[in-house]
Amino acid sequence: MNKEERRTVARIRLEQFRKGKFYQIFCEKGVVYLLLSFMIPFSIMLYAFGVFGIHPFGDRQILVVDLWHQYYPFFRVVHEKLATGGSFMYSWENGLGTNFLSLISYYAASPLNWISLFFGDGGERDALTFILAAKIGFAGAFFSSFLRYTYRRNDLSLCLFSVAYALSSYTLGYYWNVMWFDTVALFPLVMQGIVALCREGKWKLFTFSLALSLIANYYIGYFTCIFSVLMFAAASIIECKGIKDWFRKLFLMIRSSVLGIGLGAFMLLPAYYGLKLTYSVNNTMPKEMTFYEDWKKIFAHLLSYDEPTKVDGLPNFACGMLAVLLFGVFLFAFGIKIREKISALVMLGAIVVSCNMNILNFIWHGFHFTNQIPYRFAFIFSFVLAAAAFRAYDVILSRGIKIYHLILMLTAPATVFVLNKVSKGVDYRFEGAIKSSAIITGAFWLIFIAAKVFPFRKQKNRNLLMTIALSAAMFSEFISNAQIGVKTVDTTGYNDYPANYQEVESLLGYERENDSTPFYRTEMSYTYTLNDSALYGYYGLSQFSSAANVSVTTLCKRLGLYASEAGNRYYYRTNTPVVNALFGIKYLVKKSGELNSEEWAFDNIRMEGSSNLYKNRYPLSLGFMVSGDVMDMEDNGAANPFEYQNKLVSHLTGTEEELFTPQPVALAEYDGLEINKNGYGNYTFRNDTEEPTGSATYTFDCLDGSYIYGYANGTGGTCDHLEIKCGEELIDSGKLIESYPILFPMGNGQTGDTSTVKITSNEKHKSGNFKLMVYALNKDKFENAYHALADEQLEITRFSDRKISGKLSVKEDGVLYLSIPYEKGWRVYIDGERAETFKVLQAMLGVRVGSGEHDVRIEYTPEGFPLGVIVSFLCAVFIVLLIIGDRRRMLRRREHAAAVQLASENAPEPSPYRQGAAIYDQFGIPRPEDHIGRVEDSEIILYDGSRADEKEVDNAKSEGNDSIQRH
Question: What is the DSSP string of 648-713?
Fold first, then answer.
């Protein structure tokens, strides 16, 4: 076979390959570019993780800030429920029991969480790392899909700009908020759906992608809903054909929005009712308009190679210097409609102003001021900027590089560099991020110049090589940015998390093997994360989440536990036996050493390494009968937790005995502080010395048959450090009251022993107030109260996440107190009859029960879930009917067209004029007499609504085979 024959065979094979299904699917339909748009950011992120030794590439992990305290513990519970088939409606593994559907609707509803099953038990953290990288990859893939459809381009340039969105500074600074990134990834798909709706009347993509966005994370989905209004306004102006068409598309938009939200109602309604129980419901709209940041600094932060904001700081708007470079081309180049430019500027301006203005920021965040991370919708700016940059690049690819393009490219980067110099003032240095951004910007610009100057034979080759060169430079930029992002967010030790895990797991296993009780609670003597029960997998009290029940938080604060309504948290630290009994805490784990207090109340039953397991001698069941007087219990605002517990026990038992009595100070010693006493337990101090801190030490005498407890509060952070001793034995020490007041035990001392509390001032305060109260608990009185309550406990016979059954023997009419946070979703049946439930202690679940023997059944369904399921089902049915209707209309059109064609074939030979007219009608070609144009916005509008400048074909040198015709 000669050379010419081989070429012929090669051409034939290439032609056959191009006609094959593989080529059509992967190349012509753009699947290969979608895959690349996924794999490139996915791989870059994994590479950055690997550079910093994140497991399995080293001994580090991505768990930091709230990912450490909240997101991972909740993810672990989700993994456990997926593996064991547990209910997603309720979880007992944090917060005394939690509406889990409401909780995961914000924290862990990602469909990708199913991937964790492939990693098995113990591989949850590796699964989370992989899932996060996959979400970032999907952000690139879906942005690529948006660009491909919106601008009708199908080449390597899609991958180039997809990386800009997927690895924007928003992603690199906030990736530790893993639960946001499903909806961030889906955002371009929702926007594509809006464009498709306005362009072709196709509504399904918008409907389903919006529903999935809201189901995956309703919070970021709320941002999507707001921006969808702006996107529809822009898309309808650009795509709609006349006022009638606009109203039709508006109807489709409203209908699809309602259906999309309705599809997610089974998740959204329980989330809504759950949020009504949280502290956030008390937020109020600000009355005065204020601005957060200097405008110059906001735009100066568009630099690449700069540390992204991790918690507090400027909005994360940056998406690479190529986007900045091309923005000037987008604004001033020919070939882009004025309405496109105005729409993009309005969108960008709306996001910037919303970030910086308190009122708009409040509205965007769901009528709520955030606790840090104030610009959570900033990714939308990167989306618009990257899309605008791609539009400019699209014009360059289609029309060729013009000299004025090269000049326009310098306008936006120059502005950013000047703003950096102006905002930094005398601190400005041409180094670091500024220098690196200038270099990469210059590299991009030189690539465009080289592509303009170099004499390519075909425009297609010029475009391909230019895109490849830009891709290489841009990927280098984002590899560096990804590493800067991981360094900024930081890592933690893989092998240290959770602390003492094997020891604790062994102790919890010992519990399960030796305690046949269907339900009991366990807690840690102090917290490691703020959701230890979710982290280690036991039924506990502690919870830190945006879904925290504010009523339970307030009750815990009254009782002297760590708690903050505004901080959305309440968590356990060794308290009094009254609290342990009230919340049904049967076991206590201390991870380092022995308890050194309350030997009378706890038995040390197991030791593993340095960790110890204690069993409470005075546990109470999940439910027990109390006096009806409990309904008269008042909230005293947590002024004194000992007096509150006295009143509580009195109302629960119907007696007047006081368990706790205040103890006088036996000896007070001061070091560097002047102290004034303002009533029992309240002190004012002043530090007039040169030392940064001072201290006050108070000694108390112990009593036979009683055990003393203290309560301290460093008001406003004026005092933060406590040291508690019984004799010479250290009970506890550290910054125990740095943020919140706390009640604490003071040892096992009896008559002849003393306990001391040393409280130290904070170095930032030379004066202030603090509180220190010490009370003695009478053991005999406590035991009498305990036996009175333990005499009528709920004997649980069956227990699951949502259903509890048991037997109850009641001596006289009263209230069945259940240590379950009150929600309307709980239903209690006494002997098969549904009983009315109500709040006990303003927070817990209660029901009135008469005397006698009773069968008790308790069931839970999240409030709003049944209605949500009905709404979702009806919306799904309606969507199916709409799809069937659309298909039938399409079939009727085809049948009509076929009938017309058949009739024309069987009809007598028409006159030449009629034959020509039929052909025009049959194939949708306008008749010659219909060629009428009009002038609009300085552009010629042809008979079919398209624009003359869009129909014009550039010469072969500038366009080649790459030209793309747009409607």
Answer: HHHHHHT----SEEE---SEEEEES-EEEE-STTEEEEE--SSSS--EEEEEEE--TTEEEEEEEE
- Residue in this structure with the two tokens 């999309």, named with its chain if needed: 260
Tens digits of per-residue pLDDT, 283-292?
788 888 899 8
How far apart (Å, rounded) are the C-alpha atoms in residues 766 and 760?
11
* Measured distance CA(743)–CA(774) in Å, rounded: 9
pLDDT at position 934, please?
40
Closest CA to 223 of 233, 214, 232, 215: 214
Residues 176 and 179: their CA atoms lie apart, in Å, by 9
Beta strands in 92-228 (DSSP E): 98-99
702 close to 759: Cβ distance less than 8 angstroms: no
Q: For CATH 2.60.120, list the domain ranges present in the chain.
A: 660-784
pLDDT tens profile 69-87: 999 999 999 999 999 999 9
Q: Is the pLDDT of residue 935 over 60?
A: no
Give the pLDDT band of residue 957 (cuts 50, 70, 90): very low
For 660-784, CATH number?
Answer: 2.60.120
Task: Please state the pTM of the whole predicted model.
Answer: 0.88
Residue 402 burial (CB < 10 Å; 0-12/13-18/19+)?
middle
CB atoms within 10 A of CB 316: 27
Coil, strand or helix: which one is 615? strand
194: part of which helix (H) or strand (E)?
Answer: helix 181-200
Q: Which helix (H) or strand (E) holds 608?
A: strand 602-608
Taking each helix axis as running N to C, give the angle between helix 243-263 and helix 218-239, from 0 to 180 degrees, rounded to the nearest 10: 170
Residue owning tokens 């759906």: 193
Contact 231, 206 (CB under 8 A): no
Q: Where are the beta strands (DSSP E) in 787-851?
A: 795-799, 803-810, 814-821, 826-830, 833-835, 837-840, 844-849
State how beta strands 521-524 and 585-590 pair. parallel
List, in sequence order, every residue forming a beta bridge with 858; answer none if it has no partner.
804, 828
